[in-house]
Amino acid sequence: MKGKKKVMKLLVVILAGLCIYNVAQAARVLQQDGQYGRRLSAQIGVQLMHQAVSVYVPGLLYTERPGEEEVILEDESTCETILEMNGRTLAERLLGENQSDAVSEENEEALKKEEDGEKSEEPEEEVTAQAVTPQFDISLERLRDFDYLLNHFFVVDPNTTIDAAGLNIDELMGHDLTMKQDSQSPQILIYHTHSREMFADSNPEDMNTGVIGVGEHLARILRDQYGYNVLHDTQAYDIMPDGSEDRSKAYNQARDGLEQILAENPTIEVIIDLHRDGVSEDTHLVTDIDGKPTAQIMYFNGLSYTNESGALSYLPNDNMDANLAFSFRLEYVAASYYPMLTRCVYLKGYRYNLDLRPKSILLEVGAQTNTVEEAMNAMAPFAVVLDKVLKGEQ
């Protein structure tokens, strides 16, 4: 009996030494990942103790039973190897469990943020328009000077001409361009004669990174922030029935589509044909509005008149005066709020389907040297100006 007690005491001493060694081995493993060392030390110490006892001195954890097999201790080198392997395995398992828990927590947190983001999607940032001092005199008295009016607001293409009778400030300002807002019926139509026009960083495979995407952005602003009922026609009028691209025939093909849309939606009063300009590669049409790089815009009007052929009777436009007034008023209002937003009203021969409504414009947003972001940024201030003109505000 005394011999048995001595053996048990000896086993306890050996066990204590083995546990200390086991913990040391686990700590050495954990040095590879100090981030979890403190968290795991307590767990490892406890689990190593139970593991060592259960493996090497199982009798200490249970009530002594008659006939139980005698515990056989391996030699010193075998014990050392087993302890090191067990210590490493246990440490790695605990480390893996804690890392897994951490990753799960991070994933759950990320998922929660994503779900919250979907639930509370940020609304489009509204642009506040503060009247500023125009860069030049825009008083009606000054604008009654034809040359002054022409030089400050218009650019005339060499293929056409216009005189004081065609550009009279009192007539330009006299047109009633207001629109009684009705969100129940479509009132504004946005389309693209040249739907394949892209920007400097557009993806040619993604039409939403070209003028179509800019048009949709404008439509969303007009709907969400101003309450207008807007139709956005994304048909590719520059793609012919045989699949080829033909910009010169696009206006004829667009006219058929527009006439059908207008027949189905007679309440439409405003038509915007949204393009981007083509300029030399060293030209960058950009300004800063509210701290954002913003593409400059230009209005494009047809006079159905060329210097070579005179009046183009095959391209009649009974709405030409109203078209000019609409473009001018948009630029005039912009001069008081965003002086650098607009470039000019560009006058050229032909008609460009502007005759379909009095309030029709061809809008050039930046050029091929502008980025998609710059073009998108131009739509918020343009929407401010358009809303003011339609409400009769100056």
Briefly characterize the structure.
The protein is α/β, with parallel strands linked by helices. The protein has helices at 2-30, 34-56, 76-119, 140-143, 146-153, 169-174, 211-224, 250-264, 320-337, 372-377, 379-390; strands at 154-156, 188-191, 230-232, 270-277, 286-289, 292-295, 297-302, 305-306, 310-311, 342-348, 359-367.
Describe this structure in words.
The chain is of the alpha/beta class. The chain folds into 2 domains: 2-119, no CATH class; 140-390, Zn-dependent exopeptidases (Aminopeptidase). Helices cover 45% and strands 13% of the residues. The protein has 11 helices and 11 strands. It has helices at residues 2-30, 34-56, 76-119, 140-143, 146-153, 169-174, 211-224, 250-264, 320-337, 372-377, 379-390, and strands at 154-156, 188-191, 230-232, 270-277, 286-289, 292-295, 297-302, 305-306, 310-311, 342-348, 359-367. It has a 7-stranded mixed beta sheet with strand order 1-10-7-11-4-2-3. It has a two-stranded antiparallel sheet with strand order 5-6. Helix 7 links the parallel strand 2 and strand 3. Helix 1 (2-30) packs antiparallel against helix 2 (34-56), helix 1 (2-30) packs across helix 3 (76-119) and helix 2 crosses helix 3 (76-119).
